[in-house]
Amino acid sequence: MQFPKINLHVHSNYSDGINDIKQIVKKALKLGLDYIAITDHFTNSWKAGIIPTLNSIDKISEYLDEISNYQNYLIENNKNLVLYKGIEVDISSSERYIKKFIQIDQFDLVLIEYLQTPESIAFTKNIIRYWKNSITNGDDFPILGLAHFDPFYFLHGNLEILIEFLKRYNLYFEFNSSYPQCYSSRNTQFFEKLREHQIPVAIGCDSHNLANLNDIEEPIEMIKYYNLKRNYKILIDKLGFKNSNIPRFSI
To answer: What is 3-44 written as a DSSP string?
Structure first.
């Protein structure tokens, strides 16, 4: 089986990445990646004082326009790469800030960062419901995923709450090569639940430079190890719904 080569967690110089979007796209093409998502940081928590972020409507608009330009370039030139408009939302941010600046139908993919407690699940549910109510066409709603999420926070007493949340709100788990502890064997019970409930899984490298844009081999091996190939296919199919040019694979 040939796994499509994906990296759905890439940072550009619109936040704390080193490279601009043009350099990322050029390198992704050279590496033969099938598709990537640019997912720059959005926050007004403690992190906002340390790193650059998507911190204004104008900056977000410029960011999305630039990604759109490269999406069009790839399509018009029949390039074998699909590019997605993403954002990484720190849910330590204030509810008002998130609701004010994020127009959810402008994005293809949204990563949720710092889901660590049942209280953070409740907060995220509220945000997702607000986003869903803010649009009229459900097809415009982005794919949702968890950024570098460690299931270990929920293994002792709250696992069912977590699984119900992921399933109901259709979030995927990210095999993130920069955070291998998140898919270590201590979380085997969690991965068994993902398989049982057919919750999607994806690959993201949390790339802040070009050097690790293609660090996907270990995540692919761990997806195979936990027997989550079908879950990966569910994610690929979801991406295909967003873009018919997505490469397919069978299991």
So the answer is: ---EEEEE--TTTT-SS-HHHHHHHHHHHT-SEEEEEEEE--
- Token reading at 25: 């796209």
pTM (global) more than 0.70 = yes
pLDDT in tens, 74-126: 999 999 999 999 999 999 999 999 999 999 999 999 999 999 999 999 999 99
Q: Counting every residue, how long is the chain?
A: 251
How far apart are alpha carbons 166 and 181 in whole angstroms? Answer: 20
Structure tokens belonging to residue 171 = 């979030």
What is the rounded distance in angstroms from the CA atom of residue 73 to the CA atom of residue 68? 9
**Listed residue (38, 166, 3, 205) closest to 108, CA to CA:** 38
Return the CATH number of the domain spanning residue range 6-242. 3.20.20.140
